[in-house]
Specification:
This protein is of the alpha/beta class. The chain has two domains: 232 residues, Type I PLP-dependent aspartate aminotransferase-like (Major domain) (Aspartate Aminotransferase, domain 2), CATH 3.40.640.10; 123 residues, Alpha-Beta Complex (Aspartate Aminotransferase, domain 1), CATH 3.90.1150.10. A seven-stranded mixed sheet has the order 1-9-8-5-4-2-3, with helices on both faces. Helix 6 links the parallel strand 4 and strand 5. Helix 1 packs antiparallel against helix 8, helix 2 packs parallel to helix 8 and helix 3 crosses helix 7. The protein is globular. It binds pyridoxal-5'-phosphate. The site of pyridoxal-5'-phosphate has 13 residues, from helix 3. Pyridoxal-5'-phosphate (PLP) binds next to helix 3.
Length: 370
């Protein structure tokens, strides 16, 4: 039996053909061609005006927060359950992250906790759509509006997710995406900054080009110190092929999730929600075992390992990390992560492999039931 990886990309002849063309011909006057096509296609998929390809999602967040003027003395609110990449740029800019608790059903930040955490120093709210699950965008955007604070979306895990007809990443002041090899669409490493705000777009373009403004006619004259977070044309060629296949790739993720859901029905656990009016892209099928069941994630991970299956722990609360202030009051975050595991998923994952994973989950939870 071959190893079941927790995720892997779907690469076809189309990606190989575009990447080969970029490697062979994408130089000189064509050196940005695939980048432009990738940005345009991605912006069209999302329904946004502007997209800027970057070397990573971390870089896209850094650029966007810098363009908003986030700096020393400012506070940025985000959920305690997150990958470090969503918060690291806040630290790069010398600002202070404020980690709030999550909702028990979506595992995304709790709007009431966000509102309670707002101070005169709050400069942004980062809404991360965790594992494809959507943040309550209506509530968050209303809070942002009421206090004059931009809401930004880290939609790295939410390709294919939609909130009342609007795609994740298209609703905030800006949105960011990752095309790391583990994400729903990939360029190996890579990211995207998107926005409908013309001025913010111009600001990000300048910052992302080492501080050289578009209108600057003097050669090699940076008007300020900016950043260098660009994507290469060869990566963008792979990205363009992935966007051309995006509906198929999203469907693959959704098929895997629904099979997990059917196979695990009736067990004492909950999975990623898909509320009325929303679509979940199901980047990572996740189980949260009911609190009444005695369960350790290490136990399940050991069973997976013995069966050549890669398991992934649910993100630790960021406030557990030694360099951040601890937040024991974030009780939902501190409770859920111990009971939760991401299940393997990739677009063309075989039915038998999904069944094999589910058999182990069932065996473990049934044994606990007895
Ligand atoms: C993967 C991920 C990132 C980091 O993306 P990189 O491209 O590796 O920088 C940021 N935020 C979220 C929510 C992610 O899942």
């Amino acid at each position: 039996m071959t190893r079941i990886h927790y995720t892997k990309p779907s690469i076809t002849d189309l990606e190989v053909a575009y990447a080969t063309d970029a490697a062979r011909n994408g130089w000189g006057e064509k050196c940005y061609e695939y980048i432009g096509r990738f940005e345009t296609a991605f912006a069209r998929h999302l329904g946004v005006k502007h997209a800027v390809a970057t070397s990573s999602c971390t870089g896209a967040i850094h650029l966007g927060l810098a363009a908003l003027g986030v700096g020393a003395g400012d506070e940025v609110i985000l959920a305690d359950i997150n990958w470090i990449a969503s918060v690291a740029p806040v630290i790069y800019l010398g600002a202070t992250p404020v980690m709030v608790d999550i909702l028990p059903d979506t595992w995304c930040l709790d709007p009431a906790k966000v509102e309670a955490a707002i101070t005169p120093r709050t400069k942004a709210i980062i809404a991360v759509h965790i594992y494809g699950n959507l943040c309550d965008m209506d509530a968050l955007l209303a809070i942002g509006e009421r206090y004059g604070i931009p809401v930004i979306e880290d939609a790295a895990e939410a390709i294919g997710s939609q909130w009342r007809g609007q795609r994740a990443g298209s609703m905030g002041r800006f949105g960011t995406f990752s095309f790391h090899g583990t994400k729903t669409i990939t360029t190996g490493e890579g990211g995207m900054f998107v926005t409908n705000d013309d001025a913010l777009f111009e600001r990000v373009l300048t910052l992302s080009n080492h501080g050289r403004a578009r209108g600057q006619t003097k050669q090699f004259w940076p008007d300020e110190v900016g950043f260098k977070y660009k994507m290469s044309n060869i990566q963008a060629a792979i990205g363009l092929a992935q966007v051309e296949r995006i509906e198929e790739l999203i469907e693959g993720k959704r098929r895997v999730f629904s099979q997990y859901q059917r196979e695990l029905a009736g067990l004492p656990l909950t999975m990623n929600p898909e509320p009325e009016g929303c679509v979940n892209g199901y980047w990572m099928p996740t189980i949260v075992v009911d609190g009444a069941v005695s369960f350790t994630r290490d136990g399940l991970l050991a069973e997976f390992k013995a069966n050549e299956i890669d398991g992934r722990v649910f993100f630790w609360p960021l406030s557990e990390l030694p360099y951040f202030p601890s937040r024991p009051d974030n009780t939902v975050a501190h409770d859920i992560y111990r009971r939760a595991i991401n299940l393997p998923t990739y677009h063309d994952m075989a039915t038998q492999d999904i069944q094999h994973v589910c058999e182990i989950v069932r065996r473990l939870l049934r044994a606990k039931d007895d």
